[in-house]
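Cross-check.
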Amino acid sequence: MTEAAVVFGPEDLDIKAIVDIAYGRRGVVLSNDPDFLEMIHESRATFEALVAADERIYGVTTGFGANVGMAVGSEGATRLAQNLVRFHGCGTGRLFDARESAAIVATRLRSLCSGYSAIRLDLLVHLVGLLTHRVYPAIPVEGSVGASGDLTPLSYVAAVVAGEREVIFGGEVRPTADVYAELGIEPLALGPKESLAIMNGTSVMTALGALAIHRAERLVTLSAYLSATLSDVFDGNSAHFDARTFAAKPHRGQAHVAGLMREWLEYDPERHVLPERLQEVYSIRCAPHIIGVLADALEPITLWVQTELNGCSDNPLFDAATSSILHGGNFYGGHIALAMDILKTSVASVADLLDRQMQVLCGSLGRISVLPANLVPPRDGEEWDPRHGFKAMTIATSALAAEALKLTMPATSFSRSTESHNQDKVSMGTIAARDALRVLELTERIASILLIALAQAVDLRAESTTTRSRTLRDVVRQDVVFTDEDRRFDIDIARVMDRIDDGLVDELAERGGS
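Predicted model, tokenized:
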């Protein structure tokens, strides 16, 4: 952990800060800015005075949702806050992993630091402590419709703050009370508005969106490297990626991808010699145009997710300057929902591209190739060759691509009327974000298989490839041996997947010129 800690206070954060916290690269601290601390204290004190005066405040002195007409009064406000956490403990499915849970806590912490939620400083300190000790709420992935915010999954954050339910600590799921006792952490009794402030926002979908953007950015670069290597092992026409072509239709993303491919292929228009095959198939020739759609889509997607990250997705809001309660709908996750639907569709298109490239590489599409079918190394002296090489790997990438493409159905189209028709139009943003991460996972698996296959192809082409293609081969060979006889590949795929998550793309970029 070499970078400076992420400071939570009045200043905006970028997506990288959330990703760095999730990956354990940076610690967290609460701002010691006196104005920020005073703002938090004054906001809570003024708010508590309104509660004591029985001011009518949604979810504090009234019931929740369709029960908004129920008067609770100041005496029942604390019990109401506790019950909100408890009855939302109905999440289902697997748990978000530690990385995802860390991102969720960090994202909710950022929203609460905006000063509109009227919470105590103690709550902010407690959330910082969870991240510092790497105590992450055990949160089931299913149960959010994306408005009123991520109520059910965020109830697990609120429950952990209060010392209830379970946490992920040291790679294990354990009772929160046991971990708190072990670390000397005191649970925090949530007061009026505080449970609602934790729960009534878009922080789950936003956190997942931040992680998805990080992985999608990495995928853009990796896909460019894979596409360039494929062109290289086929002695393809690298003039397909000439900068003049992309200046003629200047989408920035596709121009960026073409630039990565030109550098990889050591393309020089002054020295380029036309190969025998003038035009390659679309999965090679149009790779920058296909990957470039994802690269360009990331610009507005990142803007929307970052705006959501730094906004206050809560209701009601409290304007301390005027002592005003603002009842609204900032918990609605429509921007994240659409962003993630766009992202997953763009990523799935890249999954389809990489699968097509795998089929081309292994000779499944009938292309006249300089490589043996299914990348089986030549062998003399046998009447027939019983080896199958990468034949089944092409089936695997096809299956993975089909599943990724199936998941492109937009989650935003499936709004449901919920909670006694009070939440009668919802965003489905969290489902969209979960879909996006699943599509990314499937695509990374295809990329892992293609990486292994391309390393094989570079070995089969001996030294007729570029320095960067041989670097790709060398990086893969750290984990995967050359395939001469038929064998299982699943362990190799898992290893390469882990390498992608641990910095393989950065390693390729750094070592490419060596």
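The beta strands are 6-8, 28-30, 92-95, 136-137, 140-142, 166-169, 172-175, 317-319, 324-326. The mean pLDDT is 92. Passed to J.P. for a second look.
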